[in-house]
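User: Run a structure prediction on this.
Assistant: Running it now.
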Amino acid sequence: MTPLRLSIGTDHAGFLFKEELKAWLQAQGHTVLDEGTHSQERCDYPDYAEAVAKSVVSGRAEKGILICGTGIGMSIAANKMHGIRAALVYDLYTARMSREHNNANILVLAARMIAPEYAQEICKVWFASQYEGQRHQARLDKIAKLEQTQERE
């Protein structure tokens, strides 16, 4: 696995999960930019979704990982950012497909739905999977057009 520069963020529900995953990612040789939160104190997930998304869009990080209780809120918030394709992933198949077909640049994990050990397996598959392009590119172009249309309105 080629080492990546990753941005990671979570709300309070995923704090312990993030800490465990971050340690594993670093042990695998990845550089991890921790955007927070840094405790289990209640906080608002959109703040961390924004921070990770900005890291990815700016190129400060190659890819991002977001964590919250179900992953739903983080997915919604991150996907509001121009250029972000955040995929909520619960298994190895959706991890692979989110990269191969959707060129996802942020992996979203659910701390209350999957074990940290399984998240490691998901990360391995997600990092190893490559965007296929070709027939899928037209769909991503349509998504980009939706972003541009909304910005003009």
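The mean pLDDT is 94.
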